[in-house]
Every structure is written in structure tokens, then in C-alpha cells.
């Protein structure tokens, strides 16, 4: 493995990949810091631009956008109390309190150091754990893979949706849309209604941009009359308030380690995501803190806990994707699409078929953290200025990038129609509580399910009991039941807890 | 707007579509024989859609029958929807005109329209951005990505 890691570093330390990482970090921080643009939006817009470069450059650039975008979200959270993503909500609580006290520099520094520490630890776990897990998952045949995929659908659908039926319905709709066009197994054309344009199915990139990115633009347009907030870094006359000293960093290092561990674990489980990780880590840090009363009122430790946990998810969410072909969240689903477009099929075989590429990507992951640290630290003022641009400069550009990105995929105007249709559908799904990210996961995984199911049917013939002969099958059935049951319990507890609160406020 | 009413309408629509998938054999054409069959998985998924859509519809119907007021996520706030419709209109116009007038001509007008929609009135920077951005994208796509964006065909 160490030979592979060294070879990965030698591949990544070249002009192309390094420029890709630098561009990715700059784009990621800028986009992440702009309120209304999330990391996922930045990745989807950049994705078409990576089609024509080497996968090592393209994928590392996208991963750099992802990591930097997650960190960038904390800038707007700290400076104007507008979390770019739900995961930055807790950072906004403590970070904005520090900004109001004139200590924005301290909050931004802590957020950066905690983010980079969390990401690095999770990336190390990814590098050390992914290959051994892939060895185990290689033992799985088509029957086991069918149960694994059903487990993935059930868990993601039940954990990620607004309610279990809505999450699972989103997944089923994604599955249904994936089956439009020519079947890869039988060659039959399904749901094409005589339109030859539908034979190839829906083009992935325009659909992705439409369903995940453009609804965010709709949200900005809806809120277009909300006044614009200018971002400024408040400075204290005391220099110690404008930065984090090594002593301060050391004092919260234990919290960072613990929170990174929580983030890594939560990120490796499909369907939970960075917000859950941040909330659990923040709660745990507060529970064990010496001064829990400071949390929410400008605690540096609070920022460290939330940021290290939500950034640790970046690395560990790759574990299920790379070892089991299961994207754990929306960003992982998008990245899985990017891997597929670049000719890399995520799954255990990736470690054997594309060893050099995958370890180069891992090395790129680690190097991105160093660049993120250097670039973010050097360019705070630049990123704040960029993120302060008014929305009528940013969103016309986003519109054109979305159009170009959709067109680039197949150089076909029909893809723009796909983009428009899925934009409306994605926004509509959000309005009725369906989850577009789960829809995408269902869309991506269905071809794998159908292929494995067909192979499994060939193996078992008419002896259907053979489906349940492997212990793996039972393990995944039990895990699916467990996740659905625990999700139902958590939801009923949350609603019971919320009911008295509503009564109180009434 | 009460989302529960939309839930019932949408669920009904999905159930009807799923029933068509379950019963209509003309939705698939050609293809080789396989153990699974081309319509096996679509029909399983259609069955599941009926199940989940019916669950959502029944829950909403029950709440409506009880006469309870919509709360939290059950209320769809429609403020600002006019802007969304205008934006969709702008995008459709963009899609329609680009094949005729080309990317370079259509894009500045579209960018200015979106900027106006978002309340932009600083004409000089808006016009400058609207002219420079398509130029950069057009030549960037052509030189670096080898993607040729549509040109004037009239």
C-alpha cells in the first residue's frame, strides 16, 4: 500500500494536477463563501469543465472544490451569520458572536485550522481503511451486491428524506427515471414513446445541474428583495483577538480530534451527512466542555468542534462510495457521477483496475488540505470581497455556466431542455418535501442494481431460496430493518419533542 | 399554499402512472430475452411508488379530514414565485434563440435580463460583465475544452 501511496504522490506532484488543485481551492472557497451557492453547486458547475482533462486532474480539482467549498461556507456563516449550508449553522452561532465582538479573525482562523485538521484526519482514515474494506467487498457476488444496493436505497431513502415515505419515494422516482432508454441488459427500449432522443436515457450532467443546482438559483430569485449583506472582517485593536495562537489551538486539539473522529464515523455511514456530524460533535464537545455556557455565545471550541466534524465528512463519505459503490450523500453521488464520466467505476475493483489513479487522487486529497490552508490564509480579504459581490453579478453568470455545462455534456440543444425540465422538477420536489439528492442516488445506482439482479437471477435460476443462502444477504436485510426502525424512532422522538415546544410558543 | 392538497394530487398522479407501468406492455419495445425481463424492475419500482405515494396521500388526507391547520413544512410560501416564472421564461427563450442567433449574441441579453430580475441597476458593470463573460466562456470552451458553442445561423 505504501508503494502505491508514494506512486500516487509522484503522479500528483506535477504541474497539471497542482494547477487543478489550486484552481479548485480558489473556486471552492469563493463559491462556498457566497451566500446561496453551496459546494455541491460549485462542483456541478465545474464538472463539465473537467470532462476533457486527465481524471487525476479533473477528479482532484472537483475534490478540491468540494473541500474548499465546505470550508468557504463558514466564511459567510461567521461574517454575516448566513450559513451557506446547514452544516455551518453551528459555526454561525459562535463565529458570528465573535465577529460582533470584533474577533472575526480569530473565528476565521479557528474555522480554517479545525477544517483542515478534520479533513486531514478523515483523509488518512480513508487511505488506510478503503483498500482493506474493498478486499472484503470483493468477496461479494451479484446476490450479495443486490442486497447491498437494496440496503443502500433503504438507508439513504429513510435517513435523508423529510419523512421515510417521502425519502423512499424520491429514491423510487430516481430509479424509474434511470430506466428510461435502452436497457443495457436486454437492449430493449423502455419508456421512450417513440422518441429516438430518449434511447440513450437522460443525459446525466444537465439532469444533475437541473435537479441539484438550479433550484438554489430559484431560491435566490425568490428572495431577491431581501437586502444584500456586505461582508467585512471586524478587527480588534488587540492583535491576539485577530488570530489563533498555537496555545489556543493546542487547547482545543482534543476537541478537534474527537470531533474529527465523530465526523469520520458519521460520514462513512450512508445518508447522514455533514450536518448530523456537526450537531453530534458540537453536542458532545459542549457536554464535556469546562465552560459549556460559552457555547453559542462565541466559543472558539464550539467552532472547532462543528468545523472539524463537518469537514471530516468530506473524506470519509468517500469510503462507502469507493469500496461499496454507495454514495453516502448528495455530494458523494455527484462525485460518483464524475468518476463514472471519467471512466472510473467506483467500487472495490477501482483499487485494482486504476491503482495509480486512485492513489494519486488520495494524495491529491491530502495536498489539497495544505493548499487550502495556505490559500485561505493568504487570501481571506480577497475571498471576502468576492463573496460580497452582489447577486445580480453572480447569478447571471451561474445561469450561463449552467447552460454551457449542460450543453458541453453532449453538445446538443436537447440537453438544455433536459436541464430546464429537471430544474422545474427539482424545485417542485423540494416544495413537496421530496429529496432531489436521494433521487440522484437512486438514478445512479439503478443500472448497477439491474445488472446484478440479472446476474443473480441467472445464478439462482428457479431456486429462489438461494437468494438467502449467503450470510451477507441476512446481514444486509437486518441492517436495512435496523436503519428503518431507528430512523422511525428518531423521527417520532423528534416530533414528540417538537410538539410541547410548539405548544409553549403558542 | 397547503402542501397536503398538492400531496394528494401528486400521489394520485403517481399512482395512475405506476398503474399504467404495471399493466401496459407497450412501454417496452424489442430487446433480447433475459432471466429478469425488461419490465421486471420498472414494475417492482412502480409497485413501491404506489405504496409510498398512497402512504403520503393517506397521511395528508387524514389531516385534512381532521380539519387541522397546515403547520411547518406543510405550508408552501409562494412569495416571490413570479420571479421564478419570469426566470423560467428567460431560460426557455435562451434555449429557443441560441440555435438561431448563437451563444455570443443571445447570452449578453439573457445575462442582463437575469441581472434586472435580481434588481441590478448599475448598468455599466452589468453590461460589461454580460459582454465579457460569454466571450471568455466561448473562447475558453473552444480552445481548452474543444466544445463549439452554437453560432449565428440566420
Question: What are its keywords?
Answer:
heterodimer, A: 506 residues, mainly alpha, 21 helices, 73% helix, disordered C terminus, B: 154 residues, flat
Write the layout of secondary structure elements.
The complex is a heterodimer of chains A (506) and B (154).
Chain A: H1 2-12, H2 15-33, H3 39-46, H4 55-80, H5 89-100, H6 104-137, H7 142-160, H8 164-178, E1 181-182, E2 189-190, H9 204-222, H10 246-268, H11 273-287, H12 300-316, H13 318-324, H14 330-341, H15 350-353, H16 355-378, H17 380-387, H18 391-410, H19 414-431, H20 436-460, H21 471-505
Antiparallel strand pairs in A: 1-2
Helix pairs in contact in A: 1-16, 2-3, 2-4, 2-16, 2-17, 3-4, 3-9, 3-14, 4-5, 4-6, 4-12, 4-14, 4-16, 5-6, 5-12, 6-10, 6-12, 6-13, 6-16, 7-8, 7-20, 7-21, 8-20, 9-18, 9-19, 10-11, 10-12, 11-12, 14-20, 18-19
Chain B: H1 3-23, E1 28-29, H2 40-66, H3 81-101, H4 103-117, H5 123-145
Helix pairs in contact in B: 1-2, 3-4, 4-5
What does this 3D model show about the protein?
The complex is a heterodimer of chains A (506) and B (154). With 506 residues, chain A is mainly α. Chain A has one domain. Helix content of chain A is 73%, strand content 1%. In chain A, strand 1 and strand 2 form a beta hairpin. Chain B has 2 domains: 72 residues; 65 residues, no CATH class. Helix content of chain B is 69%, strand content 1%. Chain B contains 5 helices and 1 strand.
Short description:
The complex is a heterodimer of chains A (506) and B (154). Chain A has helices at 2-12, 15-33, 39-46, 55-80, 89-100, 104-137, 142-160, 164-178, 204-222, 246-268, 273-287, 300-316, 318-324, 330-341, 350-353, 355-378, 380-387, 391-410, 414-431, 436-460, 471-505, and strands at residues 181-182, 189-190. Chain A has 506 residues and is mostly helical.
SS-based class of chain A: mainly alpha
Largest sheet of chain B: none
Give the oligomeric state of the chains in this entry, treating copies of one chain as homo and distinct chains as hetero: heterodimer
Percent of residues in beta strands of chain A = under 5%
The level of helicity of chain B is: 55-70%
Shape annotation of chain A: globular
Order of helices and strands of chain B: HEHHHH
Q: Quickly give the structural class of chain B.
A: mainly alpha
* Helix fraction of chain A by DSSP (H/I, runs of at least 4): over 70%
**Got a strand count of chain B?**
1
**What is the typical, i.e. mean, pLDDT of chain A?**
85
Contiguous low-pLDDT stretches of chain A (5 residues minimum) are 502-506
Mean pLDDT of chain B: 91
Q: Unreliable runs of chain B, pLDDT <50, ≥5 residues?
A: none
Amino acid at each position: 500500500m505504501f508503494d502505491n501511496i508514494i506512486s500516487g504522490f509522484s503522479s500528483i506532484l506535477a504541474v497539471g494536477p497542482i494547477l487543478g488543485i489550486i484552481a479548485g481551492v480558489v473556486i471552492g472557497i469563493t463559491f462556498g463563501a457566497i451566500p446561496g451557492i453551496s459546494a455541491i453547486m460549485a462542483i456541478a458547475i465545474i464538472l463539465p469543465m473537467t470532462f476533457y482533462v486527465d481524471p487525476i486532474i479533473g477528479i482532484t480539482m472537483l475534490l478540491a472544490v468540494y473541500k474548499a467549498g465546505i470550508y468557504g461556507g463558514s466564511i459567510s456563516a461567521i461574517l454575516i451569520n448566513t450559513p451557506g449550508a446547514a452544516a455551518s449553522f453551528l459555526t454561525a452561532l459562535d463565529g458570528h458572536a465573535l465577529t460582533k465582538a470584533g474577533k472575526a479573525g480569530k473565528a476565521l482562523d479557528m474555522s480554517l485550522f479545525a477544517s483542515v485538521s478534520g479533513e486531514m484526519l478523515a483523509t488518512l482514515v480513508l487511505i488506510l481503511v478503503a483498500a482493506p474494506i474493498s478486499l472484503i467487498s470483493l468477496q461479494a457476488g451479484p446476490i450479495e451486491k443486490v442486497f447491498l444496493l437494496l440496503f443502500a436505497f433503504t438507508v439513504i431513502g429513510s435517513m435523508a428524506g423529510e419523512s421515510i415515505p417521502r425519502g423512499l419515494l424520491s429514491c423510487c422516482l430516481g430509479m424509474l427515471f434511470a430506466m428510461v432508454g435502452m436497457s443495457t441488459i436486454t437492449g430493449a427500449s423502455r419508456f421512450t414513446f417513440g422518441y429516438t432522443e430518449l434511447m440513450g436515457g437522460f443525459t446525466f450532467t444537465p439532469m444533475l445541474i437541473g435537479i441539484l443546482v438550479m433550484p438554489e438559483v430559484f431560491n435566490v430569485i425568490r428572495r431577491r428583495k431581501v437586502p444584500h449583506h456586505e461582508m467585512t472582517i471586524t478587527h480588534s485593536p488587540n492583535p491576539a483577538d485577530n488570530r489563533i495562537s498555537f496555545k489556543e489551538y493546542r487547547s482545543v486539539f482534543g476537541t478537534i480530534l474527537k470531533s474529527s473522529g465523530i465526523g469520520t464515523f458519521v460520514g462513512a455511514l450512508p445518508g447522514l451527512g455533514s450536518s448530523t456530524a456537526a450537531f453530534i460533535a458540537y453536542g458532545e464537545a459542549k457536554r464535556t466542555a469546562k465552560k459549556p455556557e460559552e457555547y453559542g455565545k462565541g466559543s472558539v471550541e464550539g467552532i472547532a468542534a462543528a468545523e472539524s466534524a463537518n469537514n471530516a465528512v468530506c473524506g470519509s463519505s468517500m469510503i462507502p462510495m469507493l469500496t461499496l459503490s454507495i454514495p453516502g450523500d448528495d455530494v458523494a453521488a455527484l462525485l460518483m457521477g464524475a468518476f463514472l464520466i471519467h471512466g472510473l467505476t467506483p467500487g472495490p475493483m477501482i483499487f485494482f483496475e486504476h491503482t495509480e489513479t486512485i492513489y494519486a487522487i488520495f494524495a491529491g486529497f491530502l495536498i489539497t488540505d495544505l493548499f487550502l490552508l495556505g490559500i485561505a490564509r493568504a487570501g481571506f480579504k480577497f475571498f471576502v470581497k468576492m463573496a460580497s459581490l452582489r447577486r445580480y453579478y453572480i447569478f447571471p453568470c451561474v445561469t450561463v455556466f449552467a447552460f454551457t455545462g449542460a450543453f458541453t455534456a453532449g453538445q446538443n440543444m436537447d440537453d438544455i431542455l433536459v436541464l430546464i425540465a429537471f430544474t422545474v422538477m427539482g424545485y417542485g420536489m423540494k416544495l413537496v418535501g421530496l429529496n432531489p439528492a436521494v433521487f440522484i442516488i437512486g438514478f445512479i445506482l439503478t443500472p448497477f442494481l439491474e445488472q446484478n439482479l440479472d446476474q443473480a437471477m441467472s445464478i439462482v435460476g428457479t431456486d429462489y431460496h438461494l437468494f438467502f443462502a449467503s450470510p451477507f444477504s441476512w446481514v444486509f436485510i437486518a441492517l436495512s430493518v435496523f436503519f428503518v426502525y431507528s430512523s422511525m424512532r428518531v423521527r417520532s422522538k423528534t416530533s414528540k419533542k417538537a410538539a410541547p415546544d410548539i405548544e409553549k410558543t403558542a | 399554499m397547503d402542501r397536503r392538497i398538492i400531496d394528494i394530487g401528486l400521489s394520485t398522479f403517481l399512482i395512475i402512472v405506476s398503474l399504467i407501468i404495471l399493466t401496459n406492455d407497450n412501454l417496452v419495445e424489442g430487446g433480447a430475452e433475459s432471466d429478469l425481463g425488461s419490465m421486471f424492475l420498472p414494475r417492482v419500482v412502480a409497485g413501491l411508488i404506489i405504496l409510498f405515494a398512497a402512504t403520503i396521500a393517506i397521511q395528508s388526507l387524514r389531516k385534512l379530514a381532521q380539519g387541522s391547520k397546515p403547520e411547518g413544512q406543510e405550508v408552501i410560501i409562494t412569495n416571490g414565485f413570479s420571479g421564478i416564472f419570469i426566470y423560467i421564461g428567460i431560460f426557455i427563450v435562451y434555449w429557443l434563440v441560441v440555435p438561431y442567433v448563437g451563444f455570443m449574441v443571445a447570452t449578453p441579453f439573457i445575462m442582463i435580463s437575469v441581472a434586472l430580475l435580481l434588481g441590478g441597476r448599475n448598468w455599466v458593470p452589468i453590461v460589461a460583465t454580460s459582454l465579457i463573460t460569454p466571450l471568455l466562456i466561448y473562447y475558453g470552451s473552444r480552445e481548452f475544452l474543444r466544445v463549439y458553442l452554437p453560432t449565428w445561423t440566420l
